[in-house]
Amino acid sequence: MTYQEKIRQYHKEASGNYHNAIGDSEQVSGAQPLDLNDRTLTVEINPIVSTLVGIARIFGAALGTDETYNTAQNMTVVIPESSHTYVKNSIFGSPFRIKGILYTVSTLLQLAKPFSIIRQSIAGANFTKTWQPSKYTAPTNYNSLQIKTSEFQVVIDGDTRIEIAFLHGAYASMVLSVSDKLDMAQALSNRTPIQSAK
To answer: Could you say which DSSP state residue 89 is in?
Structure first.
């Protein structure tokens, strides 16, 4: 086995062992086009009481599709296109892949707060990876409270959630780019259930 073949084999095994390893959408063969209205998702996060801190949980349908956790954490999570509750309910049958984010915050200190991307196994174990938005600030960006990158990539299903700690009074909004989505209803029409933006 050559050196290059060993590297390819290692990469394939590592990708297969990690749920959120992301491949390019071109690897999805025979995908249906993703509806233009489904290619972005807006998430608005605000405190209930501005003098208190909190942790916002985005998605995480397996832990509950209502907003009990966020309310207890002094946070509201709103998805204007529909609702956070509706999106969490639909994730069970239509997981999707995020490939890109536009993230805007109210203070620079909030931009330094990392995202915890957590996947929960059937046995209840949590596998966490951390994504740091402040690494993506650029001197050419005229808005220091905003970052935009295609390097934020994660598969969202019922077992996956994003948690962000918020400073008192801080709020944020994010526009997520959806690159691929699974629509099981398509399979009933003998079409591939995968829809892709490419």
So the answer is: H
Q: Are strands 126-131 and 115-120 parallel, antiparallel or unpaired?
A: antiparallel
Q: Does any domain span residue 147?
A: yes
Residue with tokens 């997520």: 176
Which of 26, 164, 165 is CA-nearest to residue 99? 26
Counting the structural domains of the chain, the total is 1
Find the domain containing 141 and state its range. Answer: 25-196
Joined tokens for residue 100: 């890109």
Q: Are 115 and 163 in contact (CB under 8 A)?
A: yes
pTM beyond cutoff 0.85? no
Question: Would residue 141 count as lying in a domain?
Answer: yes
Number of H helices, E strands in the chain: 4, 11
pLDDT tens-place string over residues 2-33: 645 655 555 555 444 444 444 444 445 567 88
DSSP, res 157: -
Instruction: Assess contact for 180 and 96: CB atoms under 8 A.
Output: yes
Tens digit of pLDDT for each residue in 163-182? 999 999 999 999 999 998 88
* Residue the block writes with tokens 């099981």: 184
